[in-house]
Amino acid sequence: MLTDAEIEVVRLSAMVAAWSVAVSILPGILLGWLLARWNSPTRGVLQGAVMLPLVMPPVVTGYLLLWLLGRSGPLGQAWEAVSGGRIAYTTGACVIAAAVVGFPLMVEGIRIAVLGVDPKLEMVSRSLGRGRLSTFLRVTLPLALPGVIGGAVLSFARALGEFGATIVLAGNVEGETRTIPIAVYTLMNTTDGEAGVLRLVAVSVAMSLAALLAAGWLARRQRRRAGR
Amino acid sequence: MSIEARIRHAFRGFTLDLKFESEGPVLGVFGASGSGKTTLLNCVAGLIKPRDARITTNTRVVCNRPGGNWTPPERRKLAIVTQDPLLFPHLSTRANLTYAPGAKDALESESGWKIVDVLRLKPLLERNPATLSGGEKQRVALGRALLSKPEMLLLDEPTSALDAELAREVLALLLEVKRALKVPMLFVTHKAGELMALADDCVVLSEGKLVAQGPPVEVLSKPRAIGVASLVGVDNLLRLQVVRHDEEGGVTLLDLGGQELAAPLSEAEPGKHVSVGIYADEIMLCLEKPAGLSARNALPCRVLSSDAVDHEVLVKLRVGATDMLARITPAAASELQLEPDKHAVAVIKTASCHLLG
Questions:
Q1: Which single residue of A48, A144, B177, B288 has CA 20 to 30 Å from B59?
Q2: What is the CATH architecture of B3-226?
Q3: Contact across the interface for B100 and A129, Cβ inside 8 Å
Q4: Cross-chain Cβ contact A123/B73 below 8 Å
C-alpha cells in the first residue's frame, strides 16, 4: 500500500487539479462562449493567446509565469504588497501552473460545445423576452453542458500530469508542491525509489482513467436529460 | 396593431430596401425565397441590426438607425415562430410553454387556458418534446410564443416544414388564434392560399423591394402584373361567398355573381367568404353545353381576351361577375375560334376547385 508521504502526494495532486479546474471554469466558459459567438477580427488574436500554453513548452510557460509572479515580478510584488505573502513555491503556484496549462483544453471543449448549440434557439429565447445573460444561462449553457464537462475533465487530467511549468514556478516542496509527477521524478532519482514510483504510477493511471469514465458518464447523462 | 417600416440594409450582396406602413391586424409578407421576407421579419424582431432603418410597432419606435435608439429583441414584445419549431430540447413541453418571463402565471390564467384550449395543448403538456410529431411541435411553439403575451406574433413560414395536411391544420389553428385570441401577426409566407386565408393586408417583396401592397385578394388577383405568378401557382384566386351546402351531393355552392360554382364541401357557413384556387389548365372550354357530364360545373361564359404566350393560349373569361383565366393549346384555340365577346362554356370539375381556407 501507499506510504503516508505518498498518500499526501496523491491528496495534494487531486486537490491542486480540482482547484485548477475550479478557478478556471468560469473564465473558461466566458472565453469559450466569446470565441464561439463573438464576430470580430480580434477573435483570432484572442484565440491564439488562449491556445498558446498548449503549444509552448510547459517549462517556458512556467518561466513566463515565474517572471510575472515571482518575488521580483510585477504581479508577485503587487501580491506581496497586498497580502504580505508570496506566490511562487506555494501550493497556490501549483494551482496556477496547472490552471494555465490546462486552460486551452477547457476553453476549446467549451467553444466547440457552444458552436454546437443552434443560434436560432438563442434568437427564439431573446424574442420570447429573455435577455442575453438569461438566454445564456437557460439555453446555451445547459445545451453545451456535456462539452463543458468534457473540457473540465480534460483540463483536470492535464493538471494531474502537469510537470514542466509546476517545477519552475512551484518547485519541489514536500507536502506543498510535490505532486504526483514531481514525486515520481524525485523518486526515480532516489536509490530504492523504484517501488514508490510504481505505486504512484498505478495511482496516476487509475485517477486519469476514473476522470475519463466520469466525464463520459456525466456527458451521457446530460444528453439523455436533454432528450437527444 | 400598426407597423411602420423604412429599411435599407445591405448584407452579403443582397439589399433590402423598402418602405411601408400597415394597420394589419394580420400583415402578410409575400414573396419568393430570397426576396427578403425573412430579412424583413428579422429586422422587425430585432435579430438583425439594419444599418439604416426606422421601424415602429404600435407607435413604439423600436429601431431608428443610424444614430437613434435600438430596442433589443427581448424588449420588443414580438414573439417569433419559424418553420422549424425550435423547441428547447433540454426542457419539457411544459417548461417550453412557460419559458417566457411571466408565462408561468399566464398559463394558469384564463387567457392562458384559452391558448391551451385553442391549440389543444393539454395532452402534450407532460410529454417530452422529442416525442412530439411535427405538427404537435409547431402547436407547442405557437403556444410558447402566445404565452409570452406578445404585442404581435412574427410568423416565418410556420407551415412550410410540414406536409400538406399538417400545414392545413396549422393554418386552421392560426385562423383560430386570429379569431379567438385576436393576436396581431406579421406573417411571412410564399403560399398564396395561406395569405388569402389569414392576412388582412399584405406586402409583396421581390429582390429586396416592395412591389405591391394591399388586401391579398386584390394583390393576388393580378399575379402576372406583380411578377409572382409562379409563386401564386394557381392562376385563378377567387374570394367567393358560400350560397349553400349540398351535403348529399358532396358540394358547396359558391356565388360567382349570377352563377354558382360547385366546389368541394366546405365547413364555412353560408354567407361567409372562402378562397378558391383554380389552375388555368384545369378549365376546359366548349362551345356548347355538353350533355351527360360528370364535372359539376358547366358555366356559360363570355370570352374577354385570348392571348398566345409561347406554346399556349391564355383565355380570359367572364363567368357571372367573376373573371377567370383558362389555358389551352394553340390547336384548341384555333379550332374553337375564341374571339373576344364569343360565348362559350367553361367546364370545371369540383375537385379542381381548391379550397384555400
A1: B177
A2: 3-Layer(aba) Sandwich (3.40)
A3: yes
A4: yes
Per mean pLDDT, which range of A89-98, B170-179, B216-225 is the poorest?
B216-225
Q: Are residues A121 and B46, on separate chains, in Cβ contact within 8 Å? A: no
Where are the domains positioned within chain B? 3-226, 237-355
pLDDT at B231 over 60: no
A residues 73-112 closer than 8 Å to B (CB): none
Q: How distant is the Cα of A29 from the closest Cα of chain B, in angstroms?
A: 19
A37 touches chain B (CB under 8 A): no
Q: What is the pLDDT of residues B273-332, one digit of tens each?
A: 887 878 888 899 999 888 888 888 999 999 998 888 778 888 889 998 888 888 889 888
Beta carbon pairs, A and B, within 8 Å:
71
Look up residue A200 and give its amino acid: L
Residue A43, domain extent: 4-225
Contact A127 B89 (CB under 8 A): no
**Cβ distance of B78 and A127 shorter than 8 Å:** yes
**Number of structural domains in chain A:** 1
CA B226, distance to chain mean position in Å, is 17
Instruction: Answer whether residue B223 shows pLDDT above 80.
Output: no
B254 Cβ contact list (under 8 Å, min separation 6): B238, B240, B241, B242, B243, B260, B261, B262, B263, B274, B276
Distance CA B193, CA B191 (A): 5
Q: What is the DSSP letter of B125?
A: T
Complex ipTM: 0.80
φ/ψ (deg, to 5) at B295 = -60, 135
Nearest residue of B to residue A224, measured between CA atoms: B90
Name the CA dihedral angle for B23, B25, B26, B27, rounded to a multiple of 10 degrees. Answer: 10
For domain B237-355, the CATH class is mainly beta
B-chain residues near A127 (CB < 8 A): 45-47, 73-74, 76, 78-80, 154
CB B145 within 8 A of CB B174: no
How many Å apart are CA B48 and CA B76, to the nearest integer? 13
Q: Nearest C-alpha of chain A: how many angstroms from B276?
A: 35
Q: Which of B74, B90, B102 shows the shortest C-beta gap to A142?
A: B90
